[in-house]
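Researcher: Re-running this chain for the archive, since the previous output was lost when a drive failed. Same request as before.
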Amino acid sequence: MIPQIECLAGSNIVLNGYAIDCGHAISSVEFSLDGGAHWSRYETKGANDYQRVNWSFEFPAPEKGSYLLQVRSVNDEGTPSPEADSVELLVS
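Model: Regenerated structure tokens:
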């Protein structure tokens, strides 16, 4: 789990990370704020099967409340990470 983030509603949040899948290229990184019901996909053009993909995601903080942002990678076969990583957002 990524350390908890505290922020103000509407302020920009920047997350950075990396993904790797030995023997497969990472085709995208996906993010969800609704328990995985819906995923926002960001393509990772130029990825290959022998190097990790460094990613950065910036978005405005949602309205006040507590949220769990999930992050997962998807490989070139369309298979998502077996388990998404997560970060708790506390928005005031």
